[in-house]
Predict the structure.
Amino acid sequence: MITILQVTDTHLSPRSDLFRANFERMRAAAEAVRPDVVVATGDLSLDGADREKDLALAAELHRGLPGTLLALPGNHDVGSDARLMPHQTVDDARLARWRRHFGPGRGVLDLPGWRIVGLNTEVMGSGHAEEAAQAAFAAEAAAGAGTRRIALFLHRPPCLERMDEAWNPWSVPPEGRAALAPLLDHPGLRLVASGHIHLHHAVRRGTAMHVWGPALSFYCDPRDQPGLPGSRVPGALLHRLRDDHVETVALEAGPLEAVCIEDVRDLTYPRG
């Protein structure tokens, strides 16, 4: 059995101790479990899109987790398309800063019977040159999977409910979803795991479970997420890859601090 620890939305920064205790409790629990792979599904930093020291600390702490690390960027790490991050659009400088600390931001890991694929959702729909390069990478990852089962990891989920839904701030933009088709339509797909929404929710679509990972940092005000299902309890997930399916459970990390973003916004993203 292969075990993957999914950690997401840790929002770490040397400028703040916020969320650090949750990370340390998660790290201690991970040491006891010793996963084969750790996939960090974005927003590892509080403001790595503009502050390199935030990325440096996030890299140091995540590389201290047990298991092979596959780190994927989120909008707070590299910016995003202009509709989501008008003042921090994804660009060459932000992507280069991420690569200095974490590597490419996409990747493939082949394990017995399984192919793990990680993608950077923040270039999807952006028009940046990396978007086309990654689309080719995703197609090659699907074509080369053979008889392996596939587990796909991203920061933003492909969609909230339907692949033809309109743009929203929580999922991959409509213009970027076509690049996911080779993987989402692959007969071996068994898991699509994402972060970004700060909600824990799971639903089966065809042969695959689509799982939103719980944030390890804060939860959003429910009034800002009308109609979105899921739990706001912080945490991390263990994905246990069996021969033909995935079992997903919460990592038992003891009591974690549940923080609403509105209570700490001025300490994290000052309005002034």
In short: The first strand starts at residue 2 and ends at 7.
